[in-house]
Structure formats: C-alpha cells, structure tokens
Amino acid sequence: AQSVTQLGSHVSVSEGALVLLRCNYSSSVPPYLFWYVQYPNQGLQLLLKYTSAATLVKGINGFEAEFKKSETSFHLTKPSAHMSDAAEYFCAARGSNFGNEKLTFGTGTRLTIIP
Amino acid sequence: GAVVSQHPSWVICKSGTSVKIECRSLDFQATTMFWYRQFPKQSLMLMATSNEGSKATYEQGVEKDKFLINHASLTLSTLTVTSAHPEDSSFYICSARAATRGEQYFGPGTRLTVT
Question: Exposure of B14 by Cβ count < 10 A (0-12 exposed, 13-18 middle, 19+ buried)?
Fold first, then answer.
C-alpha cells in the first residue's frame, strides 16, 4: 500500500517569491507521482507527472518537481509566484505496474499569494 | 484533447430523492472511469472504479446500493445517488482513462446539495 503526505496544509508566499510545496510518498517500489492543481469549484488539472524517466520534471505554468528516491520526495517548486497560482495543490501517487491505476492523493496544500 | 465533462455542475435535491450525475469523455474512449468524493477543504477519496461493460469495483466503506455506477459505453459513466440524505452533500468528481494512456483526466466536478 502506498501513501502520500503533504507537509503544510496552507502555504503563503509573496508575489514573485519562490513557491515550495512538499510531498513525500511511502511505497515499497517507486510509484508514479503527480501534482494537480484545483481552483475553487473546479476539477483537477494535471501540472506535471513523474513516470520513472527524468527525475526533474517540468510542468505547466512554470512549475517543476524533482523526484528524490533517497528522500522519498517529490516537492513542487516555482521560482516566482504569480497571483494566479493561488489554488489548492494535490500530490498523488499510483503504482508503476500496468493496470495499477488507482490514485492515492495527499491531503492538499492551499497556496495563498500575498500581493 | 482528453476532455472530460460532467453534468450537472451543481444540483440541489430534497432528502429521499435520487440524483444522477453524468461523466463523459468528449474526445477519447474511456475504458476506465473513476468516481471521487471530496468534502470541503479535504482531499479526494476514491469511491469506485468502473470499466466499460463491467460492474464497478467499490472502495471499502462505499455503499454500492446507495451509489449506483453504470459505465454502459466507452464515453459515458453515470453515478446515481439513491435516497439522498444531507450527509451525501459533497463535491463529486469523475476521471477517465483511455486504454492507450496511462493518466487519468478529471472532470470539472458536480456539487451536490441535499436539503
């Protein structure tokens, strides 16, 4: 069984500052990892994903994440926050073997951008 | 590409009635669809997984007789909440996965309010 932990349910950063959202996973084998963004009353939009290729993954809207097996982490970063980045962010994991499609979500991190 | 829609986006119903939510993959054939439930300020919890033409597989603790799922075609899955009660009020999100793609694509969600 796998689990996903997001440290910090609420993160606030100033506009233009670095965004760092933390995600750690627990799994017997390295899973596939995802970051999703959710705006109010909307579904989830995929930001980026790690599927055992490059450990540094670049996504949409300037976000990127680095898979670190030694730390069982997949933290999400963005060099310069924009007001439009304010949203809820979810880290998720699923098994890397074919057919194992169930996603396990973290509890989410609400990102607030301070003008 | 890979657009998933849900209908309705918001529904209010009276306690004891049933309500049906549709999930459609608009530009691909979804061999597998997933239904999630999200309470306010919480993460997504998988309710069930449905494969086209097969019975849905429900997660532990989800009442299959209360949450009826039908995946009759490769582009449509429905979730029917039967005899709804106020505690069923929640945000319901579906996702769809094609046979040729590894990731899930999420719908915009349906907010159900039971009065």
Answer: exposed
- Rounded to the nearest 10°, the torsion over CA B19, B25, B30, B35 is -40
B111–chain A Cβ distance below 8 A for any pair: yes
Q: Whose structure tokens read 């300037």?
A: A62
Is the CB of B40 inside 8 Å of chain A's CB atoms?
A: no
Express each pLDDT in B11-32 by its tens digit. 999 999 999 999 999 988 888 9
- Count of CB contacts below 8 A, A vs B? 49
Residues of A in contact with B110 (CB under 8 A): none
Contact between residue A86 and residue A104 where contact means Cβ atoms under 8 Å apart:
no
Consecutive H or E run containing A112? strand A109-114
Q: What is the mean pLDDT of residues A88-99?
A: 83
Helix intervals (H) in chain B: none
